[in-house]
Amino acid sequence: MKYVLMFTSDPKLDAAVSAERERADLQRVLEWHEINSAAILEGGAALHPVETATTVRADSAGPVVVDGPFTEAKEVIGGFTLVDVADLDEAVALARTWPLLDLEGNSVEIRPMFDEEELFAL
Prior knowledge:
Residues 1-112 form the YCII-related domain. By secondary structure, this protein is of the alpha+beta class.
């Protein structure tokens, strides 16, 4: 079954991480992807900081473009990876090995992906 793993963090806590720690974390993330390459599908990405976001929001006058994300969000998505594993238990086991879970405020959200047949059956 296919899942998306969304890697989230708290930007206020991220700001306290040293540049040296960020470089070490990047290496750990690359190693994690290599170790788990059999389950990882093409198509994940690391995202630029939330401050670079642009949001298109619904408005009574039509779509409105605003700088930044939803301001009320405490956690933001810093990246995502698509995986193909047997079931949710396997996805959870994989997410538990995410190397950045040792940083306060970080989490991995796991969401199942619709396959084409499921989507068009709605």
